[in-house]
Structure formats: structure tokens, C-alpha cells
Amino acid sequence: MLKTFRIGGIHPKENKLTSQCPVTAIPVPRQVSLMLNQHIGAPANCIVKKGDTVKVGTLIAEANGFVSSNIHSPVSGTVSKIDKIANAFGIYSQAIIIDTEGDDWEEYIDRTPSLEKEIALSSNEIIQKIAQNGIVGLGGATFPTSQRIQAYGPHRQCDGMRTLPDGRPCSHARIARTNYNRLSHSNESYPCKTGLYRSRK
Hints:
Oligomer: single chain
Radius of gyration: 19 Å
Strand order of the largest sheet: 1-7-6-3
Number of strands: 7
Order of helices and strands: EEEEEEEHHHH
Shape: globular
Strand content: 15-25%
Largest sheet: 4 strands, antiparallel
């Protein structure tokens, strides 16, 4: 391994350990903790309380400000408490703790395996749905996607979904390769319908 630093240092391989691993379904944990500031910008406002029953897809926190994002429950169960816990940086911040039970989903979630290829929604309706569903970027900033679209405006560069399987050292690349057909179609329709076009440079 080349010594490229004068005072030493580590030289990890330029890829994630999971980049070549197959996508595997893992068991649902007995309890989950969902941070209210898991995106850039203002933390979301908690709209549930201790004892509330939630399903997969239940809105549990609403965007608070222009740069913020909705948060939905990824599990079904009961809210055990709202408390401050340490995040990945060791900083204590507000979180929703849910004791999981069952596998109940909100009715609005389409769980059919078929891919909807025809998009009848207008560009504004698509952006509204992206905001409602709390979609954020997969990079370090986790910037709310709906705000990113509006900030770039039409005919400006857009990362799009095609950036995932492009060979970067990213653990998300395996998910992208596994679902390439779905992402390829989304990448063709999403920019056109929202007025965004990926730069070819």
C-alpha cells in the first residue's frame, strides 16, 4: 500500500464493505428510534404521542420550514416515548421510539410488484407527492428532493437516480443494480415530467 501521507495515515480501499453483497431482508427489530433531524435543515415536528398506534407509512412528523422533510414510520407498532437520544455524532436530539408489532401498512401504499409506467400527474403534482412522502437525497446532506427540484428549476443539471449505479464507492449501488429496470424507467420519466434534465458533461 502506497504511503501518500508524510505523517502516516490509513489507506482504506475505495469501496464500501457491502458494495458487492446481495440485498437481503433483515428481521424487524423489537424497537426503532427515529430521529426528527435525519435530514438537512429544520427538524420535523413530531405529530404523534406516547401510546399512539402506527402502521408502516404513518406520518409521524411533519416538515417544519422550507428546508425540512416529512417522516413516516417504517414499522407498525406503538409509540413508547418521545425522547432525546444520541445520534450518530453523539449529539442528543429529539426522536420517536416505537415498539414494533405486526406488519400493518397504511392503505395508501401500493404494494403490488408491477411497475406503473404511465405518469398522468403534472409536474407540480409530482413535486407535491415527493414532498408529502418525505423523499430526501441519499448523499451525506440528505437534502429534501422536492426543494432540490424547485431550486434547480427547468433545464438545469439534476443528479437524478442514474447516479447510483455509476460505479461510485457507494453501498446504495447494489440496490440500484438490483432494481436497475425500475430506476432506469424512473430516471427517464422523472426529469422530463418535472422539467429537469441531467447534464451529459
